[in-house]
Amino acid sequence: RDGVVISLDSSKTIQFGSSASDEVVSCASLGEDIFVVGVTSDHAASLPCIYGDCSSDKENAFVARVSSDMNVMQIVRFGSAAPRDAIISEENELWILSDSHGSQDCSQGFECGDQDMLVVVLNTTDLGNVTRAVRIGTSGHEGAVAIESDGQGGVVLIGSTDSDSFGDCDPSTICTTSNENNIIIARIEASGQVVWATQIGSNTTVVPS
User: Fold this and answer.
1) What's the whole-model pTM score?
2) Which among 3, 135, 193, 199 counts the fewest CB atoms within 10 Å?
3) Residue 115: how many CA atoms within 13 Å on its side-chain side?
C-alpha cells in the first residue's frame, strides 16, 4: 500500500511508497509548496531520521516538501510516531500531531505511557530543523485526532484517552477509567508550552472524530 497525492484537477499525481505499507494522512500548503505528512512501516528506509527512534518496530512519520509541479524537494522521517493531522501556523511553521509510541521526553506535568500525543514542529524551509517537540499523555492510552490553530501562533489539540488523569475533567461531565474513551483538549502556545489541558467524558464511550 502506498500514499498518493492528486491535484484538484487530477492533472498531477505523486506517489509515496516503499516495500512496506505507507499512507498519506494530511497535506498543508504554504505559498506554492505542499507539505505531505504520512506514516510508514518501513524501518529500513534511507530517509534521514530527524527526531526520535526510527529503527524500532513501530510506525514512523514521513514529511515531504513538494513543489506545485509535484517534485519532491525534501523528505524526512521521525519516529516512533503515526501522524494524524498537520497545519501551517501563523509563524509559517509546520505543526504535526501524531500518536507517539516512542521514548520521547514527556512534557512537565504529564505521565506518558505506551501511546501518547506528540506534536513536532518543523521549519518549513528546512524540514530537518525540528524547532520544538511536545509529548503529552498519561500512563494510559491516548489517541491523537486533530490539530487547529489558536490564532496566536499556537495550537489546540483534540484527542481521546482511557484515563481520568489527563488535565482537569470538565465538571459538567463524568470522566471514567473503565476502558472508555474521553475527549481530551489541550492548548499549546507558540513557545511549545502547554497552557491548559482538559477532558470531557460521560458514562458511555465518547470518541472524537
Assistant:
1) 0.89
2) 193
3) 16
